[in-house]
Amino acid sequence: MTSLTQAPQTTPVTPPRPDRTARAVRGNRLARFTPYGLIGPALIAFAAVLGYPIVRLVWLSLQDFGPRSLFTGEAPFVGLENFTRVLGDSDFWFTLLRTLLVSVACVGGLMVIGFLLASLLMQVSAWARVMLSVCLVLVWAMPMVSATMIWRWLFEPQYGVLNWVITQLKVFGDFSAHDWFSSPSQALALIIALIVWKGLPFVALTLYAAMGQIPGDLYEAAALDGAGRWNVARHVTMPILAPVLAVLVLLEVIWSVNSFTPIWVLTQGGPDGGTTTLGVYSYLEAFTRNDYSGGAAIAIITVLLLAVLSVLYVRRLFAQDEAVV
Q: Compositional bias of type Low complexity: which residue ranges (predicted)?
């Protein structure tokens, strides 16, 4: 008896077509450079608008540019002398500390009140939500100069509305001629309140939009477990809002440090420099004392401090995300 062994049948492999392989390679290359193409126009616009001013500011900080240079056009190169002089000035360090305190107070107030307003928007009825949103948008749309002038009128010593209201209440005594801007602490408190009031719409509406994306099932599960409002906010709402809060904190720190208009219109850094922050200090150094190079050096130091703070803050956020994963 003869046994026949049949060889296994194999399906022939068709080699890929050259044109298909070339298209796949081109597709991979296109996908690799797509992100750069998307951010390219923004980078070009950023470089065109801010590139030259930043380069000019850096070069100005390395020169001895004073009133004489405006007429002669000559500004000798002095290297890091302006930075050494600024960092050796005690006024700069007091101003830096004051700027940090103002920023911490502004960002803390914005985050707390903004979170409360966003929670309120989630709880109220539709018409109340619309009215509150309209009020917030109107506050945001008002120019800072106009808002500061109104703020100054509210606290004006002789004809201010707030002084009249406090006097009519007859609780704190006669405030009919009280000057809020004669005391550095009171003036600084008014500036912080103005910055917080003007920045609330952005924070509150951003948090409200983020809260609207949280699934309702999480709140229902927390309610079934008997969690109160504080525990729900701490263990459900805050962890989900953490990325949004991180971005808001970073943006508000930058905007608070760079606040110039409310301080200049209200107090011009006074009284006795008690409300001077880095932005106002740079302006005073450049355009009041006519030390343009010193003002440029202060501006560069401010930018570097914000850049370092931003990098450290973002790296810490990424490190926390990796630890959680």
A: 1-12
